[in-house]
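DATA SHEET
Item: assembly model
Revision: 1
Owner: S.N.
Input lines:
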Amino acid sequence: MSNIESQTIAYVRDTMIPEQAPPLTESGAIKWLRENLFSGWFNTVLTLLSLAVIWWSLAAIGPWLVNTVWNAGSLSECRRILDGTEGACFAVINDRWHQLLFGFYPSDLYWRPVLALVLLFVALAPILFTGLPRKMLWFSAAYPFVAYHLLWGGSVWLPISALLGFVAGGVAFVLVRKINGLAAIFASVLAPVFWWLVVAGPFDDAMSSVLPLGLDFVRSDRFGGFLISLVIGVTGISLSLPLGILLALGRQSDMVFVKSVCVIFIEFIRGVPLITLLFTASLLLNYFLPPGTSFDLILRVIIMVTLFAAAYMAEVIRGGLAALPKGQYEAADALGLDYWKAQRLIIMPQALKISIPGIVNTFIGLFKDTTLVVFIGLLDPVGLSNAIRASTDWQGIYWELFIFIGALFFIFCFGISRYSMYLERKLKTDHK
Amino acid sequence: MSTTTDQRYTKVEPRKSFHLSMLLYDQRYRSITIQVFFLFMLMLGAAWLIDNTVNNLRALGKDFSFAFLNNPAGYDINQRPIEYNSQMTHGRAALVGLLNTLILAVLACVLATILGVIAGVLRLSNNWIVGRLMTVYVEVFRNIPTLLWILIFGAIMTEAMPAPSAFRGDAPSASMIFNESVAITNRGVYIPAIMFERDLGSFQIGPVAPSISWVLVIVIIAAGIWANKQLIAHATRVQNATGVRPKTWWKSILVLLGPIILFFFAMGAHLEYPELRGFNFAGGTHLRNSLIAMWLGLGIYTGAFVAENVRSGILAISKGQTEAAFALGLQPGKTMRLVILPQALRVIIPPLISQYLNITKNTSLGLAVGYMDLRSTLGGITINQTGRELEGMMLMMLIYLAISLTISGAMNVYNSRVKLKER
């Protein structure tokens, strides 16, 4: 044996060979290209097709974008500057951006909607990011009144007296709770109603005459552009979630009557296009209300959009409720929790977490659907783009306006969807 | 061990008396109390609304009737799937609008499905550039309102396409595509139409008069599909009995295509090409700009959503299924067809159908580009002319509701059929 070994193995290397670089085709860009772009004939065809598409779009749009004219008073002036070459005329944005953003809001008061938007982010921050101090939530609660006052203006005492109604409800609840829990609920409902119906008016008048504070009043028909989309969208989003939760719970309820009303409401709203509901708000509401009453068109639209989104939200949340294992409900019962406590502490946190993607999709859908208000004569960005095109200066300008409006919507909707991905990752508790 | 036999326990009779507070504190009565209260408030609200409506209608001197549907409409509709002129009734105009809505919905659903499946599958492809391109498509279209897309496609059609006059002359600046058969102009797209030399005329059912030839075409195709199904079922029976599957592909082709080709030949079917006559194209089928803008806008927009559904459906199938199929010795094609697709479809189809519902509802945006759908006819011009907002809107909502409920009913049937049967 050893004899054979000594004959066959004449030489055994006793030093390491220095490391060599991998072959050129197995490293770096070439390997990546081969694996990701040209791994087979089909992939090669796809890659070449995509490159062709990209090249073709760049060739079509590139020069047009590069030759942009930023300063001109009208489309004909733009064309004179371009002098026959292909080029965009973003001068229209430069000329009319304030209309696209604010509509016909008085230009010396632009700081008010801007401030409202900045404060919106401040108010949203503690809700969106749990790392921030919880005391900021008080500002979030007061924000709707602040925003109303900033946007519409008028006497400062109107929103304050409305806010005090809620405070009255809270105080009544705390005071009466010591006596009787049920009576506290009634008191917390009755106190604000009493405040708003009886006290608020005289209080408002008295305070206004004593201390006439306030901002210039801006009528609703001055609102327009992206401002109106944001007002309708943000209000609708924040109101439709609680309403949707209630509808979803109603649909799951054991009470036959409550359940059937919720089912009919949800299926009706989901079965008709939003635009018919908006027309109902603008055309038919006069039939349903007592003669002589009429209220703000923006408010009507907000109500309709909220109801519409709430029905979709209810279905999304119902999906989340259905996805919860039955054991969770039974565990809540076994702990002796009552219905609302079980919902608040066990069911809803899990069901809402499951339905985050659906909820966010509904939010984005609602925000995009605010463009439909153009059909009932509100001047949202799309409506204003039509108005700008109808003016003699900018007759026949399309793409620049569409690109600007589309980019604004894209930034908002894309931002919301990215946030929802962050939230999903953060709330993920399984160990995958 | 019941209480009657065991004397150590004293029997406590439940209190028979009924207290008013039990309505709220006793679980047996509480739900009834709440429901009665709820019902009472709801009826109060409904009564208030109806009372207001009756008063308002009386104050305006209007009654509540649908008789206006029988009055002459007096307006024209540019896209007429059935015979219509301005002398016909409002009801007929509404029917034309409804058909236009359905035509657009079907076209957009087909486009959205095709685009969505392609984009969804390609987004999962390991080809880097294609994956990125599809991501851009999905994100850009999903995050911009559909109304804006409809307007953009409308503007592309009317602004960026050549006028019919550009096709004229010795050196025309525009030319027809696909072998001189399709003309894309700023007045719409002209495509060839299939005509029959020996047409069989039409017959009347209710308000519509379908062409006999086309009804026969549909019948023959349906019969072909049914016969093909029988063929395949027979092949499966033979395979189960003998272990050898007979070749069916040539029989399938014969059964599916043979009769329809024979029929077209017998009827003298030929294509009528659009031609430039005077200032415009004539002959062929004219797809109006409004239809094209709505079709592309809705189809491509919704395609982005369908792509996401398809992607999540494929991702939902665990890798173990593929590996198990390979372990059984199935080829990749059969693995896809027999194992992956049936399971993925169960995840994909329900959201796909709700996208179809969205398309159907979004056809009501036709007003933006002047597409004469149900909302533009019944809910637009008819309401403006007759002043019957209440009746018109109610009828329109009911029609949309009926379409939606039909589609979601079909979805429920499908869901219960493919539901995972767990034991």
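QC remark: Strands of chain B lie at 183-185, 188-191, 193-196, 269-272, 275-277, 280-282, 285-287.
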